[in-house]
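For anyone still unconvinced, we reproduce a single protein record, the chain in one-letter code, the fold tokenised, and leave readers to judge:
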Amino acid sequence: MDNEKRKIAYSALKPTGDLQLGNYIGALRNMVAMQEQFDCVYTVADMHSITVDVVPSELRRRSYDFMALFLAIGLDPKKSILFVQSHVPAHAELTWVLNCNTMIGEANRMTQYKDKSRKAGKAGINVGLFDYPVLMASDILLYQADYVPIGKDQQQHLELARTIAERFNNRYSPTFVVPEGYYGTKSTSKIYSLTDPTAKMGKTDDNLNGVVFLLDDADTIRRKFARAVTDSEHEIKSSPTKPGITNLLNIYSVMTGKTVKAAEKEFDGASYEKFKTVVGEAVIEYLRPIQAEYKRYIGDKAELERIMKEGAERASYIARKTLSKVYRKVGFIV
């Protein structure tokens, strides 16, 4: 069993906003755990970021920040392949071939594209925004990924990747692994905004008081939790009718390793003010070593770039093998 080939998992985060607690609890901590079970390929997806207007200097800064935070939370370049997407040209090259194996109707049906189109209007839509699900398929299929950790909002994109892979395999002969979704454990908590506990905490949220960023200082975190929305009652219980309290209990559970039930007992009879203060302090203590490691990596740009370069070389080796196979099958001279 020890010699059995491990499955491959692929995941990417787009540096269009600063990483926050929802990213960590919903995705990043699971990415760390997956290293022990799978051969993991993890990407800072900067190519996906330019489908909307971004300030180039901000994109560059965030790409460094994301890689430094990847390392700070425990993603290990010895266990996983960590790289910046644009450093591996095969992502763009495979996308063209996959574009020619994707139907317009399939791309048109992508819900996120439709939602963003409605918000931006026709004048604000570029071809990249329409086409990015095909680039996402390339990201996954290049590495012959068996699993892709996703949430509900990405299921449709994974289905498109599977459809493209199956179509190519049927047309030219087996070439791509058809990937499956990886949904983690049932205990994975979704974290909501502190100011609107019915909306997911998001790194591009307009109300920054509702978002706890991984690099927020202690005073900022205390202030945000002090202002967190609760309800007009006084009981600290997890319930669908108490979304604010439930959200805070879930955050506390992850930060301390205690169950929600244990947390409810701990805060039995406590005021909401006391409860919010303790949750904020738990977050501060949890993030303290991550922030210290981040500062160490971001302060040594040469080391960070060395890790990026090494990761891109490892990723490119795998990606070029897949791309060469694809090129030969479609009739290109390789």
Observations:
- The beta strands are 8-13, 39-44, 81-84, 147-149, 180-182.
